[in-house]
User: Which sequence fits this backbone?
């Protein structure tokens, strides 16, 4: 497994990270034993970066990871944890909380659920519009000083917010959606991160499976699958977007790889400080994703990929309308 360093102050991690969200029901029922086996397979393959959120199924994801990581050398992996999203007992989201006292409260619960004495990268999941980012980051800095957190990260904020946060304490990385069909970060975010020496962990590199090569127009989201509410999977949009996937498939065939591998490799090729996160919840999907990091894309390959999926080619927003306003950048 290759490694990459998250910016100038962040940790060295595997060049491919594992996003654990899908193991807690966001895309429908997941198999607990298979999820744990997938975490084990990732670790054995050299994956050292594991990403979660305290609001993923209201703590379920953290407890699942605690079980999967039990007995492992704590220095052999890095935990990235998002906090601050407020949930109800049903599927609803009720805003964000970035108050300093809330930061410390969320952290205390995460440390307990994960069964660890520190979090490697701790980050607000979204910007709290009622709390200056300086206050939120300042509270995390206190936890860094106390030894409970190793590095500070951000998630889904704009370039101006990155600068303000970084002025309080060095930011290791920004976690944000980045894929062939979600390229809004390229205008302002990526140049800012490079200027400041901040890494990027890219989630949604397969656009929730839409550009994995495994989704079909006749496929429908099952019970509990949030993709049933995603504009890019809606009737009319999904057919157009899957046509892009077929164009990408033709490029993948010339490279002797799968569509998913090509899409992941494209994200990794956009910068040495970019680490793609793959949301594999089965060993089969993980095994497909792993070779992507070793896939060498030439300038000619990148040009062919751009032809197949030009910037802005996708139809539909990357989130339902109610969530778009909370993002630092658009699609």
Assistant:
């Amino acid at each position: 497994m290759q490694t990459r360093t998250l910016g100038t102050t962040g940790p060295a991690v595997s060049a491919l990270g594992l996003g654990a969200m899908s193991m807690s029901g966001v895309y429908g029922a997941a198999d607990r034993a298979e999820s744990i086996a997938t975490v084990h397979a990732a670790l054995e393959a050299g994956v050292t970066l594991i990403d979660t959120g305290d609001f993923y199924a209201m703590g379920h994801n953290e407890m699942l990871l605690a079980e999967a990581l039990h007995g492992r050398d704590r220095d052999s992996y890095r935990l990235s944890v998002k906090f601050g999203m407020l949930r109800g007992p049903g599927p609803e989201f009720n805003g964000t909380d970035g108050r300093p006292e809330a930061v410390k409260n969320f952290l205390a619960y995460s440390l307990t659920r994960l069964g660890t004495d520190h979090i490697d990268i701790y980050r607000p999941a979204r910007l709290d519009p009622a709390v200056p980012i300086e206050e939120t980051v300042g509270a995390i800095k206190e936890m860094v000083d106390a030894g409970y957190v190793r590095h500070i990260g951000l998630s889904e904020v704009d370039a101006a917010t990155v600068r303000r946060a970084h002025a309080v304490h060095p930011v290791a990385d920004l976690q944000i959606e980045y894929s062939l069909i979600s390229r809004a970060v390229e205008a302002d975010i990526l140049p800012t991160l490079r200027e400041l020496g901040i890494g990027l962990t890219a989630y949604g590199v397969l656009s929730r499976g839409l550009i994995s090569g495994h989704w079909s127009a006749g496929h429908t989201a099952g019970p509990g699958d949030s993709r049933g509410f995603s504009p890019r999977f809606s009737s009319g949009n999904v057919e157009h977007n899957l046509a892009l996937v077929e164009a990408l498939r033709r490029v993948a065939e010339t490279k002797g790889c799968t569509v998913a591998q090509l899409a992941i490799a494209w994200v990794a090729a956009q910068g040495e400080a970019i680490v793609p996160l793959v949301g594999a919840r089965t060993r089969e999907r993980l095994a497909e994703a792993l070779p992507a990091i070793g896939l060498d894309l030439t300038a000619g390959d990148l040009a062919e990929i751009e032809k197949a999926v030009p910037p802005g080619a996708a139809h539909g927003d990357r989130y339902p309308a109610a969530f778009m306003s909370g993002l630092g950048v658009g699609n």
Remarks:
- The chain has eleven helices and twelve strands.
- The first strand starts at residue 3 and ends at 5.
- Residues 177 and 314 are 14 Å apart (CA to CA).
- The mean pLDDT is 92.
